[in-house]
């Protein structure tokens, strides 16, 4: 039995369920076994319920009264919607903080992007995704509006944290190339091109659709394989 620190019990339960989804132990469209989770963690149903309410608000699960808790699958339409929101929000942040970029921010983004590319070549994709979040946080943290980051994080968790089973290496390398172009636009003082790269290329569903569909087809096949379902 796993013993949790009571001080932040709801957060730890939330992280545990996320980790189980990430590991492929909890799959999309499955129903959570709440008794099993509470017994495994040695907790009451209260912190589990609180964690699940948060997960429902963020779109990870649907609580069905008297029927259980179902893990939501991420659809292509969900991805399209999330990309539009992320592009609009991050583009607006870049426009609002553009005069705050200096050599230090450019150097940090260059270093993170270099590390991301190296992680892809080593096929260390968990490292890649963590670095990717840090890269975008460089400019998000310049914003005076913390609500934007609060709104973005659940969307990115939906896109990244629960969908890391299959990888499209070419896509990840293309993302680092887009980062390079974004950085070059900032260094050149070209606000319009920096926003365009981020909103209309990097976060554009139509620009990324081929890779998105390939990624989710692999994910669906991986899920069927883990459940023993043949295509």
The secondary structure category is mainly alpha
Number of helices, counting only DSSP H or I runs of 4 residues or more: 10
CATH class bucket of the largest domain: Mainly Alpha
Termini distance?
A: 37 Å
Strand order of the largest sheet: 1-2
What count of domains describes the coordinates? Answer: 2
The count of β-strands is 2
Approximately what portion of the residues adopt beta-strand conformation?
under 5%
Helix/strand order? HHHEEHHHHHHH
**Looking at CATH, which topology of the largest domain would you report?**
Four Helix Bundle (Hemerythrin (Met), subunit A)
Task: State mean pLDDT (0 to 100 scale).
Answer: 89
Task: Explain the layout of strands and helices.
Elements lengths: L8 H14 L11 H8 L3 H13 L3 E4 L3 E4 L4 H22 L5 H19 L3 H16 L5 H16 L7 H19 L3 H12 L2 H23 L4
Antiparallel strand pairs: 1-2
Mind explaining what this structure looks like?
This protein is 70% helix and 3% strand. It is mainly alpha-helical and 231 residues long. The chain has a two-stranded antiparallel sheet with strand order 1-2. A hairpin with a 3-residue loop joins β1 and β2. α1 packs across α3, α4 packs antiparallel against α7 and α5 packs antiparallel against α8. The radius of gyration is 19 Å and the shape is elongated.
């Amino acid at each position: 039995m796993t013993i949790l620190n009571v001080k932040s019990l709801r957060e730890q339960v939330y992280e545990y369920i996320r980790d189980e989804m990430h590991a492929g132990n909890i799959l999309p469209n499955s129903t959570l076994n709440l008794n099993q989770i509470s017994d495994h963690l040695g907790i009451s149903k209260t912190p589990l319920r609180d964690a699940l309410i948060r997960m429902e608000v963020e779109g990870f699960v649907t609580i069905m009264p008297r029927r259980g808790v179902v893990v939501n699958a991420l659809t292509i339409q969900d991805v399209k919607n999330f990309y539009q929101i992320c592009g609009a929000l991050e583009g607006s942040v870049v426009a609002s903080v553009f005069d705050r970029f200096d050599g230090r921010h450019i150097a940090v983004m260059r270093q993170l992007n270099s590390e991301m590319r190296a992680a892809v070549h080593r096929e260390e994709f968990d490292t890649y995704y963590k670095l990717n979040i840090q890269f975008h946080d460089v400019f998000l943290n310049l914003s005076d509006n913390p609500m934007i980051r609060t709104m973005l994080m659940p969307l990115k968790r939906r896109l990244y944290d629960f969908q890391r089973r299959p990888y499209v290496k070419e896509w990840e390398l293309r993302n680092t190339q887009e980062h390079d172009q974004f950085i070059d636009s900032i260094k050149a003082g070209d606000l319009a091109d920096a926003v365009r790269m981020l909103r209309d290329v990097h976060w554009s569903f139509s620009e990324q659709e081929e890779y998105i569909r390939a990624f989710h087809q692999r994910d669906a096949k991986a899920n069927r394989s883990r459940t023993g379902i043949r295509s």
